[in-house]
Each structure stands twice: as C-alpha cells, then as structure tokens.
Amino acid sequence: MSKNNNKGSFKDNLIARSEEATKVRKIASVIILAILLLIIVGGVSGYLYIKSALEPVDPNNGEEIIVEIPLGSSSSNIASILEESGVIKNATIFQLYIKLNNYSDFQAGNYTLTQSMSLDEIAENIQEGKVLQEPIYRVTIPEGLTIEQMADIYAEKLPFTKEEFLEVVNNEDYINELIKRYSVLTEDILQEDILVPLEGYLFAATYDFYEEEPTVESVIEQMLSQTELIVSNYLAAIEERGLTIHEAVTLSSLVEKEASNEEQRKQIAGVFYNRLEEGMKLQTDPTVAYAIGEHLQTTLYEHLEEDSPYNTYMIEGLPIGPISNFSASSLDAVVNPMDSDYLYFLHDAQGNIHYAETNEEHNQNRAEYLN
C-alpha cells in the first residue's frame, strides 16, 4: 500500500472519531439537560406543593367544623385527625410545621375549627386548649360493660332507643364497612358464633356530643376511634406476645371482668398466661355469665356446663371473642403481665384476690376466705 493511501485512511479515521465524539457530547448534553429540567421541575413542584399545604384549605370558608382530639393523642394522631376533618391539607406537612415552630403540649378536647384558619391558628388553638363549644350531651361509659348495657345508657342520655342502637351495632353491612375503615377491626369479629361483632371494641370513656340528634353511627364511630387510638399504642407489644388484636382485646375483657385495680389486672393476666402455657382451661366465671346472657350472682355447677364458645369451663384457650369492653389498664396488663407461678385465684367478700400455685393451696384459700 502506498504512503498516500495510508495517510488518507488515517485522516478518515480521525474524521469518523471526531464525528462520533460530537454525537456522544450531544447525547450527554441532552441527558444532562433533561436531568436538570427534571430537578428544576421537581423542585418547583415540591415547592408549590409545600406552599399549598401550608395555606388554609379554603380561605373563604368560615363554616365551623367540630374536631375531637382524644386524650393521649400524639402529634401524628392529631395531624391525621385534622386532615381527616378537612381543616388542613396534609398531615405530614403539618407535623413538620409544628415541629419547626416548636408547637407542643397539645390539649385534648373538642375544637371548633374552620377551613379558613391558618396552621398557626389551628396549632395555637389546640396548644392552648381553646375549646369554643360546650357539648350538648356528655355520656360516660364505664369499663367492663357489654354492648347491651351501653345501649341502655345511651338510650337514657341520647335521642334514640336501645333497640335502634342494637340494630345498627349488629347490622352486617355496616360492620363490613367499619372493618374497611378501622384497622383494629378484623375478620375475626365475623365468626359465625360471635354473638355481637363489636363486643369489646367500643371503648370505655366519657364522650361529648355536639349535635342535637347524634346518630347511632356517629356514637359507634367515636368509640371505635378511641379504641383504635388506645390499641395503636400497644401494637408492637401485642405482636411480641404472639397475639392477634382480637385475642388481645378478648383477653383484656377477661382481665377487666376479674380485676378492679392495676396490680390485680397484671397479676390475673399472669395467671391466665400460666394456665394457657400449662394447657389448662381458663375457667373464668364472667365468661359463663356472658355465654348464658345474664348476670349471675352465684355461678352454679349447672351454669358451668353451658355449651358455648364463650364458656371457658368448656373450651380450651380463649373464648371466641370479648365479653365486655376494657380499660387501657387491662390491655397494658395483657402485654405486661406480672410474672409468677400462680395458676389459681379467688375473690373474697371484701374484694381482695388470693392466689395459689397448686390446687391444694387454692382449696385451702377457698376454705379460709369463702366460708
């Protein structure tokens, strides 16, 4: 090959490489430009989104909205409640805002808020406890009650009947709707032999109502919200115990019916766990009364033979569902029971509880304290 031909080939290679490098630079420039545009657009969009979330929901809407902040609510709970009530746009942004602006120590209560209020106005109201409206009705539901007993109380205090309350609380379509909305409710409450699906899930507390004619649904949902708030604080501990939510609520109702103070609850929860580990039946009298459907002043041997998935003298393990509502103290006892070797307990006439490790000791307690 001649020297001139070699020179031509080398020149062609240089030109081809130069053109290729130019193409690469153009492609790289386009990619870099696209990335920069994405960053700019994302930044602008993010800025506009946050700016919008910091503004009132509707500056021209002064319609009053009653917002309930339950006792023990965390800042995340409060932010979620405010977003669900429609008085803020975004719960996460609200949480960041109150943190950056040092808002804390929010007060429980029922607040009259509007969509025209700024985040500062809302936060200041809740921080200072500016409850602007007195409740029309205030109803206290004690611990350890069945839904039927609650229905009696509400029928006396609110403008609907016991029958109307029980009809709604047992409505299958409504129960299925509630299961979708409240994480504390699971398919367990739909088991065929469950007597009342929501039994145990309507939390014992004092409830304020601001409408002239509150609906049964509004009452139930306010109580369920309180249950969800309480149970959410114990989810990790419930899982560590190897319990489902339904099992934890069921066991809490048994503890509630057998104990009257925090120490008793923890001790009895420990006894129940010991019995379960030993493969013993729980044999707790309140489950017999619930299975029969009436209050028993004295539990007789004939009562113990009631054929029911609630009767812990007949079945192994926990009853099919709760037998009453429960207190936060009872749920706490279920996840933090007192450690002991006790397998038996009995109540004396003064309300004291006497524990025993063996059946022999238990019989001695019976002879000493029940005769």
TrEMBL record:
Pfam families: YceG (PF02618)
Key words of the record: Cell membrane, Cell wall biogenesis/degradation, Lyase, Membrane, Transmembrane, Transmembrane helix
Transmembrane recorded as keyword: yes
Site (Important for catalytic activity): residue numbering on this chain: E258
GO CC field: plasma membrane
GO molecular function, one term: lytic endotransglycosylase activity
Subcellular location field: Cell membrane
Reactions catalysed according to its record: a peptidoglycan chain = a peptidoglycan chain with N-acetyl-1,6-anhydromuramyl-[peptide] at the reducing end + a peptidoglycan chain with N-acetylglucosamine at the non-reducing end
EC nos: 4.2.2.29
Major subcellular location class: membrane
Keyword Transmembrane: yes
Bilayer topology term: Single-pass membrane protein
Name this protein carries in UniProt: Endolytic murein transglycosylase
Name of encoding gene: mltG
